[in-house]
């Protein structure tokens, strides 16, 4: 079943989350009309590959044109034409942006499907999707709207003061021509005094209202706007390690910009009052007394608002590993993007952003890096992001510093994947006479020199962003905090839901926890430590990463059907199978091989003995040659009498094999030869005793024929330890 069909079967509450994903950037009409085609394209790669993104964008428009031409409903055909035109305007020059939008939507769909399969959400996801957040947003919208309304009213008051003052100025000048003792002059003086009193009242009123509004803006920034920004940054951390979709930056930009517009408008009002006081002033005039202090407060708020609005919109990420941001390999290009959330009314010159790597490193870091290429770019206005200023660095690289003797830094107390680094961004510009220095930095980065360090680096990235919201604690792994299993298990489940339509269920997580932590007490499970050695020649994180790669490239259809039990020990495997029908099998990931999947089936002998047979794990090399579902369909062993048969009858607990895997089989199927298996056999391990009447050794002719038919090199299997087709003797 396609992902979109699964989405349409969700409950209304979850469908509302889906509805939130689609807007003018990627209308739901396209998702509906091109569902199968969209799901078959590699949007993740295209998001970081401009040439592939261009090809996919062109193909998308062609697909839309095809669907539109076949549409019978005139209104629908018209709407699709409008959508097609909007996409061309929005993405023709930025196809990779479209690819990122679609990639994000598909990823979040998978997460929503995953949450529908889970019995309950984890604590982190719950905290990010509670109703309080929606109430906060409503409160912010209302409060920002009230402030804007108050500032608009203040504009009217300033205009009224200006009109009254112009009238006063005109009448005062006319008074100079009147006879000093005439009745008319006395009436005019009285009228002027009334006007001056009214003018004084209005000047005091506008300054009082300004004081109230400026205090309100100050409180808004302190109590709501800055916390909302920090909340977004925390959600960015969680999204970086596979958590829920990061949204809300456009909403933040709207709040920041509206607040800035209010402050700029108040500053213009103060400038206007300064002009008016030059023309008309008087004893105890409130403007000269209060304006300087008010102006300083407004400038200070503008400065801090703009300074805090400089954010890293896209954390550093290698295009080759879009699902693993914050890991940079030396010599490999990576991309990052910064954004100013305030739309500026004017900038005196081009706003240049400079990047610096490893600025202000903490003591104890043994390796240092620098950016050998151009590290300065000019911010520009993006049409597709509501006109904000931003800049994307697409071709940055790192190089390790060499010391006087020509050597590089040696490894210190921390391992390569525990050393944290950061990328800083700086800019400076003048706005309406106010000099503003901008500075922000990326989340901590792990720098590797070999792809074999990637799993360990990703473990460090997950551990850091799971357990702290500090943006730049580079000494974190000097004394890393402990994690609860509920925290860690949620993040581990996210690693699966980002590449498939489901994460891990409670049973799978428990099995994985036992693999990682062992059979310990609940107290231990609530205090997971960073140091972990599973007693294998490879780390837990390398083992997990190899499984994720195997699922992504070779097992996705079987995994999405929930047919792979996955994380189960050999002991538990036997417990589950021993009372099942002969031929019942289950699928699990190998504990002894990196990126291997195996299956075990149960047999019952006439005397009641239970036998468990397992195969050598299938790895990417063998799965690249034949889909896993076909392996299960065609798997054969030779029983007594040289008759090949498939021992796999029921997928655990009792699902007939063909009922479970039938729709995943390839349509092409070649019947087996009578004497030899036509598809992969594997080395089979059995817990039973050696056969009582082993078959005689094969002749050279038999060996040659068998070697032709099997899908693996039989020389790699020790014939002395096996009987004819895989059973150990």
Automatic annotation (TrEMBL):
Gene3D superfamilies: EF-hand, SH2 domain, STAT transcription factor, all-alpha domain, STAT transcription factor, DNA-binding domain, STAT transcription factor, N-terminal domain. The keyword Transcription applies. SUPFAM superfamilies: p53-like transcription factors, SH2 domain, STAT, Transcription factor STAT-4 N-domain. It is found in: Cytoplasm; Nucleus. Its main location: cytoplasm. One of its GO terms (cellular component) is cytoplasm. GO terms for molecular function: DNA binding; DNA-binding transcription factor activity. Residues 563-654 form the SH2 domain. GO terms for biological process: cytokine-mediated signaling pathway. Signal peptide: none annotated. InterPro entries: p53-like_TF_DNA-bd_sf (IPR008967), SH2 (IPR000980), SH2_dom_sf (IPR036860), STAT (IPR001217), STAT_linker (IPR048988), STAT_N_sf (IPR036535), STAT_TF_alpha (IPR013800), STAT_TF_CC (IPR015988). Keywords: Acetylation, Activator, Cytoplasm, DNA-binding, Nucleus, Phosphoprotein, SH2 domain, Transcription, Transcription regulation. Belongs to the transcription factor STAT family. This is Signal transducer and activator of transcription. The lineage of its organism: Eukaryota, Metazoa, Chordata, Craniata, Vertebrata. The gene is stat4.
